[in-house]
Design brief:
The protein is mainly alpha-helical. The protein is about 75% helix and about 0% strand. It is globular. The two termini are about 40 Å apart. The relative contact order is 0.20.
């Protein structure tokens, strides 16, 4: 078999239907940024309607579409932070050579923000890599997903009531980034929600709701990009679910991108005037319904 033929055989074979691909991609775009858990909803809907889990690999790759939406939506912020960080590092290297003590650029928020994003990414990167098999197998049990959907909803409610919502973007510190980065590790459990975990941590730290949400999106960028690229080969020959063709992955990623971009814009407007506790009103009933379906045999864990 030629190299071209071998490549074609990889991208043409698929265990997923086009309807399943489109539906799950729409669900990914809608739920990735809302604190309702995209991985949990994908797991539930895929099993309920198609009787089989689409798998963590498909989820991670299609997440690249929603991540592209974040990159586009926050392009100016990302560029400002990146250039500020590189300028600060360059100044530090120059000062090291000349033994000057300038800190003009290293005092900027953008420089500090660059280091905060890096520091917050390290915990989830380590946990995600070391616990890959546990995450893809044991933690994708639907009983766990349903229970976490319900229980973590009360974390939202408590965070809203405990936080003062007074700290602004300029008040972000490395301590905040590390704590929110550790909270991001919880999102590896389907049902928790990446934004839900990190924003809740930010609220406990008394950050303004919109500030915590925007910072949450920035923190997710390195982790989600790394996860999607790392899982790309597994999506064609998964050991944790169904295989998707190359074309299905491309279309699914594009669909998730469009829906995800609209979801970001809506969520930032929503949290400016509404409590995160509203999302508990969706999560708790969904968790209860899934438990009932599991108990009655309609769904298998």
């Amino acid at each position: 078999m030629t190299t071209a033929a071998a490549a074609a055989s990889v991208t043409d074979v698929s265990d997923m239907s086009w309807l399943q691909t489109i539906v799950l991609s729409i669900v990914q775009g809608l739920t990735e940024f809302l604190p309702v858990s995209s991985s949990g909803h994908l797991r539930i809907i895929s099993t309920l309607f198609w009787g089989q889990d689409a798998g963590a690999s498909f989820t991670a790759v299609v997440q690249l579409g929603t991540e592209a939406a974040v990159l586009l939506f926050f392009a100016r912020d990302i560029w400002r932070i990146a250039t500020g960080w590189f300028a600060g590092v360059g100044e530090w290297v120059t000062d090291l050579r000349t033994r000057h003590g300038r800190r003009t650029r290293r005092d900027s928020l953008d420089y500090r923000m660059g280091w905060m994003v890096i520091a917050a990414t390290i915990p989830v990167g380590l946990v995600g890599y070391l616990a890959k098999d546990l995450i893809r197998d044991n933690l994708r049990n639907l009983w766990i997903t349903a229970a976490v959907l319900i229980l973590f909803s009360f974390v939202f409610i408590l965070a809203e009531r405990a936080g003062t919502h007074r700290r602004s973007y300029d008040g972000l510190r490395m301590r905040d980034a590390v704590i929110m980065g550790l909270a991001q590790c919880l999102a590896l459990i389907p049902g928790v929600s990446r934004s839900g975990a990190t924003v809740s941590a930010g609220l406990f730290l008394n950050l303004d709701r919109e500030v915590a949400t925007r910072f949450s999106f920035l923190l997710a960028i390195p982790a989600v990009l790394a996860s999607g690229l790392f899982s790309l080969p597994d999506a064609f020959h998964p050991t944790d679910g169904q295989a998707a063709s190359g074309l299905q992955l491309v279309v699914g990623t594009v669909v998730a991108f469009g829906i995800g971009y609209a979801s970001i814009a809506w969520l930032l407007k929503f949290v400016a005037h509404h409590s995160f506790s509203w999302f508990a009103a969706w999560r708790i009933p969904v968790g209860i319904v899934v438990m009932v379906l599991l108990a009655t045999g309609v769904l298998t864990a």
